[in-house]
Design goal:
five-stranded antiparallel sheet, 4 helices, mainly beta
Length: about 475
């Protein structure tokens, strides 16, 4: 194959090309929670968003303006489809009674013959909400119009931070874990603020009173729950009062993800070791530590947040983004210390370039945005998304596209806009060989039109594919090789 190179000056990507972390750079996403459904991983994340002072300067993240939950999904853990931001709380959101949406958790269950999806989140530090939908990407609505857990719930009035839910599906039973905070410095070693409750079959009610999870050593926040090798593994973030001279004895230090183990979902739990140190240990900048362990295609992974995206932006004000790294578990269930990396995980499988790929699916990008598309997505925040904010030098890429079933001859795009532009299709790097040029002359700002470009020569094998943009005033919905 003999192609040429373009002369477009590229915008800077906020993660190194070839890396998988952070999983998303077009928006922040904190407190990740994973739901595996039909061979896809859906990540739900707190929608961190810049807040500004009166002078227009970015101020420290105080979490007060967060009312959305960001949703992305992937079948291979490196190419992520952006599904938008669930309007979860506030007058614009599904839970109009709530003011914030922090630390989501997700689950799904067949109810009355139909699969239903449930999104749990914290209304600040004062309760747990639940939303439901017929799809993992929404639209989500509030089925009970009030908190699922509040300070009026038995055994919850004194919980310092009534937040950070996690859900365990255990056969026919489901359990909700939540809570955190340190009531006083004297109680730092055993705050007593972790709770577990059985959920009703409908997933939107409690079946019995919440119970205290006893003796959670140096609890801070961040409930996690998994069933591993027949044991129930509860995990959490330790607080910042762990004595430095006791870290060897305890098996963990301040701001670390720590585990406990039990033979039953509601305990009693036995103290175990730390498994993921504070992000500062890996990336030089720390803060709170929030995680979710999940199994995907017979391998365990850890999703957690760090501050490397804002670091690359030169901000350093406490805005978080999500990473995923591999988890190693021994035959006896011991979890090895997990390493946080910017390289991230290896791709699981390949991407099919002959299937229509939404433009909001990407592994890396620079200088673009995504926006809701369609009536429901615009109204509820999540669903179908398009790529917008394009200008000369913007680019996006996907990793590991497999062209082995047949030789690709052409590529088609769905575009709309009122100005002319061009998309360069490049192999293996945004500065790589140009295999196609799609000249764009859309004439509608409302309707998407199909634009086709022939390839310079047939493509075979496995390649990373990059789309480099020239011009502005147009938007991209999808692409597909033929």
């Amino acid at each position: 194959m003999k192609g040429k190179n373009h002369n477009v000056v590229l915008k800077k990507s906020l993660k190194k090309i070839g890396n998988a972390n952070p999983v998303m750079t077009q928006r922040f996403g904190a407190d990740p929670y994973a739901l595996v459904y039909k061979d896809r991983v859906y990540l739900y994340m707190t929608g961190d968003d810049f807040s500004y002072n009166e002078a227009g300067e970015i101020q420290e993240n105080n979490y007060a303006n967060i009312y959305t939950i960001n949703v992305i999904s992937s079948s291979d853990l490196v190419n992520w489809t952006d599904h938008g931001s669930v309007y979860a709380a506030s007058k614009k959101g599904a839970a109009t009674w709530g003011t914030n949406s922090w630390a989501p958790a997700a689950a799904c269950r067949e109810i009355n013959g139909k699969m239903k999806f449930f999104l749990y989140f914290a209304n600040g530090g004062n309760g747990i909400a639940v939303l439901s939908a017929d799809s993992p990407t929404g639209p989500f609505t509030d089925p009970i119009q009030k908190p699922l857990v509040s300070r009026e719930t038995p055994h919850c009035a004194s919980v310092t931070w009534l937040f950070d839910p996690a859900v365990l599906m255990d056969g026919e039973e489901t359990y909700l874990y939540f809570g955190g905070g340190v009531p006083s410095p004297e109680q730092a070693a055993n705050p007593g603020t972790a709770r577990v409750a059985k959920l009703g079959r409908d997933m939107i009610s409690l079946d019995g009173e919440p119970q205290v999870i006893e003796n959670v050593s140096y609890l801070f926040e961040d409930s996690g729950i998994n069933k591993i090798n027949g044991k129930y593994v509860y995990s959490y973030c330790s607080n910042f009062s762990v004595p430095w001279d006791k870290k060897e004895e305890l098996g963990f230090e301040s701001g670390e993800i720590v585990t406990m183990e039990a033979d039953a979902p509601m305990g009693p739990f036995r103290q175990q070791k730390g498994i993921l140190k504070n992000p500062e240990a890996f990336f030089g900048v720390g803060g709170n530590n929030h995680h979710c362990m999940f199994e995907f295609k017979e391998q365990w992974y850890m999703a957690y947040h760090a501050r490397i995206l804002e670091r690359e932006m030169g901000v350093l004000k406490g805005y978080r983004s999500t990473n995923i790294d591999r988890v190693t578990i021994s035959e006896d269930g011991t979890i090895a210390p997990i390493q946080g990396t910017e390289k991230g995980v290896a791709q699981v499988g390949t991407l099919n370039p002959y299937e229509r790929q939404m433009a909001s699916t990407m592994a890396v990008m620079a200088g673009i945005c995504t926006a809701p598309y369609g009536e429901d997505s615009v109204r509820y925040g999540s669903g179908d998304m398009i790529v917008t904010g394009i200008s000369t030098g913007s680019f996006m890429g996907v990793y590991g596209a497999l062209f082995d079933t047949k030789e690709a001859q052409e590529i088609e795009f769905e575009v709309r806009g009122t100005k002319q532009g061009k998309i360069y299709v490049c192999l293996d790097a945004p500065t790589g060989e140009v295999i196609a040029e799609a000249a764009l002359m859309p004439d509608s700002a409302e309707e998407f039109q199909t634009v086709t470009a022939e390839l310079a020569a047939p493509v075979t094998g496995i390649h990373d594919i990059f789309f480099v943009f020239e011009g502005e005033g147009y938007e991209l919905r999808s692409w597909k090789f033929r």
